[in-house]
Write a structure and sequence with these properties.
Elements lengths: L6 E6 L3 H13 L3 E7 L2 H11 L3 E4 L8 H11 L4 E6 L4 H9 L4 E4 L4 H12 L4 E2 L1 H8 L2 H4 L20 H11 L4 H8 L3 H15 L4 H10 L4
Parallel strand pairs: 1-2, 1-3, 3-4, 4-5, 5-6
Amino acid sequence: MVDQDAITVFIVEDHEMVRLGLKAGLERSEGFVVAGEAEDGLEAVEAVFRIKPNIVLMDIGLPSMDGIEATLRIKNRYSDVRVIMLTAQQDDNGIFAAFAAGADGYCLKGAPISRLTLAIRTVMDGAAWLDPAIAGRVLREPAKMAISAAATPEKTSEGENIVLSDREREVLNLVADGLSNPEIGKRLYVSAETVKTHLRRIMEKLVVDDRTQAAVKALRQGLL
């Protein structure tokens, strides 16, 4: 019997062995259903429009249409479909292009299935995901982040006076370093719920929708 609350995942990957490995790993993980697969970008877009899964795992280097263009088309039509780029590429241009296209997360191939499922659950909760291996480097490149400004529009003026407490800055710095809420809690000797409370207040102050946008905006405005 299929779990009606399961997260439906569509896999886009042109290497068959990688695709099969992802499918097997997700099917062994509780709460996930693989709704379909595609090996090129054009096929993926057409299938996602038809199936409307919760999550698309999208490779960047694809035949017919690359993952960036496929992501842009999917997000333009179905903004509530979450897209996680799953790729071996760590170059900054590819990362920023993915987020500018509307990607909700960026996870490196070779990551353990536990990290991938965490990434999926994170974006399903409405937050963005950056692989810990690249998060610190990416979030600390404010000039390059301008490339993706259209994907994360700022809702307040740059000159607005925003005051963060010392603790809030500590939390945001750890977000920028790629730590999850439980990891931040352990580092600061507080509970994950307390971290969530801090982040909620931070997001209210910065007028953003998720923790990654908060870190990016704080870095842009020199608050960290």
